[in-house]
Each structure stands twice: as structure tokens, then as C-alpha cells.
Amino acid sequence: MKNIKNIFLLACIAITLGSCNDAIEIEQPGILGADQAFQTVADLELGLLGAYNDIDVTPEIQFNAVFTDEVAIGVGNGGQGVSDGTYRYVLNPGSDFPTAWWINNLTALNSINRVLNAAEGIDPEEGEGARYNEVLGQLYALRAFEHFQLLSYLSTDYENDNALATILLDYVPSVVDELPRNTNAEIYALINSDLDLANSLLTEQANPIFASKDFVTALRARMAAYRGNYPAANTFATQLLSRYPIANRDQYQNMFIDEDNTEIIFKLSRQIGDPYDGQGTTGSAFAGGWAGANFAFVNATINGSPYFEMGRAVFNELNPADIRYDVNVAPGSVIDPNYEQNNNDELDILVIQKYPGKDGQPLMNDLKIFRSSEMLLIKAEALADAGNLTGAAGLIKQLRDARFGSSQPLPSYANQQQAFGDILDERRIELVYEGHRYKDLKRLGQRGGRGIDRDPNDCDINSSCNPPAVTSNLFSMPVPLVELDANSVIQQNPGY
């Protein structure tokens, strides 16, 4: 079988609207095709919800945490992260994360493209034009996001337009197609085209669980920063900072129990009874489910069987006077001030509380995709890149002032490396357990003089004290075996 057959048989959506034909194109009784399933704008709106349902970043959250330096092996660990080698920096085409990431994102692209394809055959009724445009706009924005998600892991160099990225999918391929990877330039062009279309169709922000014009601007800002196009990144980030203030301490704490959206530009909603309401297979990139189940079996407390705990090096960067300490470190954690000498897991249990749960369901919270604090940090990168080190320092101070609730010292940078190093350090604690660390080290590690930073006590038990350099091939994801085995024209990344 060819590659798209393998992937899309896994990706066939069976939400109430329709399904894929089987491999030999037999029309099965009772199965709706797209032309029957999508007949009205209301049908398209349901299809859009189905597309949102196929987008999940919990595998990304776990991979970034385990492969880099955000977690340590917890007291409840039963082999999670160890048996598959992720904690020991094992990454190859057969690893769980590349496989899950490839399938999950192609599943989402398949859903998006099927609804877009169906929309071409629908003429909105009188008065439905705005709803129709809103559906299309959100779909184009989500398609741009999904392509960027794949590019961000597969591309070896974000700034090289000739580097290979992912497969360009702006249509529903045949089940027998074999498709090569496209270049960064080709994927960036599609993303920008989709974002232009989205921006022309979407309304202003109404609810952060749906893509909007601000979603478009946030993705443009992130992509521009990754590409090193800092003048554009600065412009986009500044636009959003004028609309989304940095959360104060109370707002910040409430944001992570989903009771405040001050800083949220876009998030993926997670609710009781939805398809992600469940734990899944703990420690697996395929699990999905509650984000907090990436770290604990029961709940985000010391009695909740944490199988991953906060990395000691991350903990050491958190000041108890900083609200980020309260958000990320669970009360009741056992903190050993002499952990370096004692090296006793039972005396030093740092429980992760980033996803404590809501609505009575432990470990289940919305997944934050774009926040204004990320935009502030992107703007700081842009100023540092332009040589405005004082301006970059002022933005870092602004963020720290908000998190401490009091005026903090103004950082002083002697050169760009110091500035980028401090920005990376701030991103490390501001965006911890949100799926950024791997890509941040990949794109800024050399420039800021930073790499994977595990405390010696966190790595000695698994012989994982020799992390790969940020220039290693391991900072670009391999094309997974599920694709290589079926696609004779797909190109693998170097080193795999």
C-alpha cells in the first residue's frame, strides 16, 4: 500500500458526518460520502468542530518535557520515558513521538481538507454568508497551523528556504498517492496564503477556543521568529500585545485552571465527556487525553502517583515569590534543600501542577496554544536581534514584574548572546510544560549559549547525563517508519 493509504486509513474520521471509503473503493451501505454529509452551512460548522477535535498537542507537551530537561523520573514511574528511551535521548524513525505526531497532524489535515473540499459544493442560503465565511476562515487558519506544526519538527533549518519540511497537503489526496516532502519555502508560501485567506474571512476575537484574526497574527509572529524575520515578528507581536495585556498574578494563576482568559489568544478546549476526557496510556505519545496525565496517574498532588516530576534544574530557576512557582509546583511537594548530597528520591518529590484539572476532573485542562507572554518574549528576541539590548531587557523585566507582582531588577546584557540566553531562560519557566522547549533550543540554543540542562541527580539513574548538542540531528524529527515503509519518494532527515 502507498503512504497516503496507510496514513489516511488511520485518519478516516467517523464523526457523525461521514467516513472514508475502504481501500478498494467499495460503496458500503449506510456510509455517507462528503457530498451527502455536507449539504448545508450547519453541516460545515459541525465538520469544523470535527476538525478542531482532531487537533491535539498533548504528545508535543510530553515529548518536549521528557526529551529535554523539564522533567525527572518520578516516584510513581513504572518505565514511562525509560523503556522507550525518550528520557535517554533516543529518537529514531520507530520512536513513538514521530509516529504519533505524523499520524495526528495528517489526521487533522485530512479532516480540514475534507470540509474545505465539501464547502466548494455548498451555496449559502440568504443570510448565511457570514457563517459560511467564518467556517472557511477558521479552516484555512487551522490548515496553516497544522503545516507549521509539522514543519517545526521536521525541518532541519527554519531559516533555510531550501531545507525540506513536510508534505504539502492543501487537498485530499488519492489513497494511492506517493508524495515527497516540500521545501520550507513551499510550505511557508502555503501557510501565508492560507493565513491571508483566513484573515480576509474571519471576524475579530470572540472566544479564544476558536481561530480568529488574532490567531492568524499570533501564528505569523511565531513563524516570523522561527524564520529569523524579526522585523515582521516584532510588528505582529506588538499588535497582539496592544490587545492582550500580560496577566497579573491572580489572572495568571486562574488562567491555568481555565477561569481567566486575559492572556489567551487561542487555546484548545477540553471538557468532560469530550473525546479527550480520559487518561489514555500513561507515558505514551499516542495517549492523548488529559494533559496532566502526561505526568501523573491520579492527580497533581504528592499522593497522585507522579511518574514524572519537575526537573530539578527547572525547579532551581523558580523563585517562591514568583507566581509561576505556585502554578507549576504542587503544594505538598517534598523539597529537600540538601538534595545534591542526599540524592534520595523520597526526600525530594517535586510534583508538577501545571494541569491540576477543572470541573471536578483532575488533570484535565485546556491546552494553551498562543499567549501574550509568548508574544512579549518574541518581541524581546526581535529587539535583541536588532541590537537593542536595553529594550529586550526592559521586556524581560516587564514580564518578571507581572509574575512577581513587584518591581524586579532590570537585566543587563553585555552582548547578544547574553540577551538571547536570558530570553531562553525566561521562556523555559514561562512556557514550561506547554510544548516549546525542544524547538526553542533548536532555534536559539547556539545563539544564547544554552542546551539541554538536567540536574546531575536527575540523569544519573538512567545514564542520561550526556545530552545531544542543539546542533545534533536529534533536534530535527525523523520521518517515521509508518511513512518510510509505504512511500518510496519520501526523504528522510540526515542522521537517521
Task: Explain this structure.
By secondary structure, this protein is mainly α. Helices cover about 45% and strands about 5% of the residues. The protein has a single domain (about 5-270, about 370-485), classed as Alpha Horseshoe (Serine Threonine Protein Phosphatase 5, Tetratricopeptide repeat), CATH 1.25.40.390. It has helices spanning about 5-10, 35, 40-55, 60-65, 95-120, 130-155, 185-200, 215-225, 230-240, 250-255, 310-315, 325-330, 340, 370-385, 390-405, 415-430, 435-450, 455-460, 480-485; strands at about 70-75, 265-270, 310, 355-360, 360, 365-370. A two-stranded antiparallel sheet has the order 1-3. A hairpin with a 2-residue loop joins strand 4 and strand 5. It is globular.
Short structural description:
This protein has 496 residues and is mainly α.
Strand content: under 5%
Give the tally of β-strands. Answer: 6
Give the overall pLDDT as a whole number. 92
- Gross geometry: globular
Work out the helicity level: 40-55%
Named at the architecture level, the CATH assignment is Alpha Horseshoe
Annotation field: number of helices: 19
- The unreliable regions are 1-31
Tell me the radius of gyration.
Answer: 22 Å
Helix and strand element order? HHHHEHHHHHHEEHHHEEEHHHHHH
The CATH topology corresponds to: Serine Threonine Protein Phosphatase 5, Tetratricopeptide repeat
- CATH C-level category: Mainly Alpha
Strand order of the largest sheet: 1-3
The domain tally reads 1
